[in-house]
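Quick one, T. Sequence first:
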Amino acid sequence: MIETSQGEVEADVVVMSLGFKPNTEQFDLPKAPNGALLVNEFGATDDAHIYAVGDCALVHHMALGESVYLPLATVANKQARMMADHLAGKDTFLKGFLGSSCLKVLDYELACTGVTELMAQQAGMAVKVSVIKDKNQTDYFPGQEDILVKLVYQPETKVLLGGEIVGKKGAVGRVNALAVAISAGMTTEQLGYLDFCYAPPFARTWDVLNVAGNVAK
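Structure tokens:
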């Protein structure tokens, strides 16, 4: 039994999602509303002697086109290598991030990359959204499950901006494919004909991402 401001709630499982904030109080530098330091594409702050990467700083979101807060281990590691190369005078090829992330809850895989519909609304960005439900593989091989795909894309050009996938098998790998497609500036039409692998244990002849791309109008 859990006591809340709304009374007692009986529950079998309680998930405490408390969050955190950047530990940047000691720095008198420009910050985002949540306290994250404002930096350029190389992690430089307004102080020429201070660079910041990881959970204490914003990063450039490639698909959104603006700085956002992405406290992810993958982001922090790539930022650190990029900053080290930059400070050592080497070329760096990091253009930004998509916030690709994944989660497993019991039997379900959940993953997303790029711009979500909510992010687009908050940024005032015009987008179109397509949602489909298909199968992760052929029906005559054991293990077929439903898989849901949501695409976010530009209305006029059909350029992919983001995607979310939920399923019991194969969701995360397909979001990785979407991250590549978004980074390459591909359209929904191109996604519809992308030459994905096929074998009965892994997909259908038209992969769910092909179907999602072809349905998006």
